[in-house]
Design a protein that fits this description.
By secondary structure, the protein is of the alpha/beta class. It is 44% helix and 18% strand. The chain contains 13 helices and 11 strands. The strands form 2 sheets. The protein has a 6-stranded mixed sheet. Strands 2-1-3-10-4 form a 5-stranded mixed sheet, with helices on both faces. Helix 2 packs antiparallel against helix 10, helix 4 crosses helix 5 and helix 12 packs across helix 13. Bound molecules: succinic acid (SIN). Succinic acid binds next to loops.
Length: 324
């Protein structure tokens, strides 16, 4: 009897008074078994373990919800709450992050990490605020390699070849610098473009090249380590600032822990995925000698000067200093 009275009272409670969990849709374009995919799942796990019933996270991988060129607009409209686009995909929001695309600027991912944690790196993390986005942290994927239909060892061998790039003017200039033909295309189209030979090659990390099977349709990979592909985890200022203070603090703590996890596995993943590609026997991996690499540096480095004004000389110098 008492139970049925309680049930009736509950049924009459206005819908507005039911506390619903905060919903976070996390959209990304890569496969689950990558640093970003695993980080997003870790974030979901931590949030739901630490804030049960209060926050619900849904992760949408493989461009299921949005591709990276649309996700930031969708975030500002409130259709998605979190994403981690590549640093190359923010150029319509700020020119400063273009520093990460300059070829041969960072000697390895540890240098990238030092720069991201430096004062300048942390300032760049806040550089999207004016455009309504909050940078929650940097996440590593790794250094980029060149995959191609033909063996490429020297910069002149790339001339006239079509390469897919992310939507970045620096990456466009990088390929034009060596007389290649860059094409800005979404990540979700790369495999088909390669398979149909609409393009000759692409640049990407070991992890993306393995998980999206690009290597299966690319007989050669030049291990050039010529640039970095890292991410910024972002949310909209509107969503972030309307969260209750205690939840915002806890969600940020979960994100920091998830990013630390993603960063810790990124290097191991790069090594493992390179190894798996090598073992496939489908793709030949070409390691460059120091002299061969130096020829690429000389060919591509003039790009820095072209973007010095937009990026800032001080920012480039701070990035260079992280190599020491
Ligand atoms: C990503 O790693 O998020 C995608 C990179 C790309 O577009 O090549």
């Amino acid at each position: 009897m008492i139970a049925s009275l309680l049930l009736t009272a509950a049924a009459l409670t206005p819908v507005t008074s039911i506390a619903r969990p905060v919903e976070i849709k996390f959209s990304h374009v890569v496969a689950e078994n990558t640093p970003k995919g695993l980080m997003a799942e870790k974030f979901k796990e931590l949030v739901e373990e630490r804030m049960p019933g209060k926050v619900k996270v849904s992760v949408y991988p493989n461009s299921q919800l949005f591709n990276d060129n649309k996700v930031l607009e969708a975030m500002l409209l409130g259709d998605v709450q979190m994403a981690a686009p590549s640093l190359s995909k923010f150029q319509s929001f700020t020119k400063k992050l273009q520093v990460f695309d300059l070829p041969f600027l960072f000697k390895d991912i540890d240098a990238v990490d030092r720069f991201q944690q430096s004062e300048t790196g942390q300032e760049l993390l806040g550089s999207l605020k004016k455009r309504g986005l909050v940078g929650l942290g940097y996440l590593h994927n790794g250094m980029k390699q060149l995959s191609s239909n033909e063996k490429i060892v020297t910069p002149d061998q790339i001339a006239g070849k079509k390469f897919r790039i992310m939507t970045s003017d620096v990456l466009q200039a990088q390929f034009e610098q060596v007389d290649a033909i860059p094409l800005k295309k979404p990540f979700s189209e790369v495999f088909t473009l390669l398979q149909t030979r609409a393009i000759d090659g692409q640049e990407n990390t070991w992890s993306n090249t393995y998980s999206k099977k690009f290597y299966e349709v690319q007989p050669y990979i030049t291990a050039s380590n010529h640039g970095v592909l890292d991410y910024m985890v972002v949310t909209s200022a509107e969503f972030w600032m309307t969260l209750p203070d205690d939840l915002r603090t806890e969600i940020k703590r979960a994100m920091d822990d998830a990013i630390a996890y993603g960063n810790a596995i990124s290097k191991k993943k790069a090594d493992e995925d390179r190894q798996l590609i090598a073992e496939s026997g489908v793709t030949e991996i070409i390691d460059l000698t120091d002299a061969q690499r130096q020829a690429w540096v000389a060919a591509m480095k003039p790009v820095w000067k072209k973007f010095e004004r937009q990026v800032g000389k001080d920012v480039i110098q701070a990035a260079e200093a992280s190599n020491e």
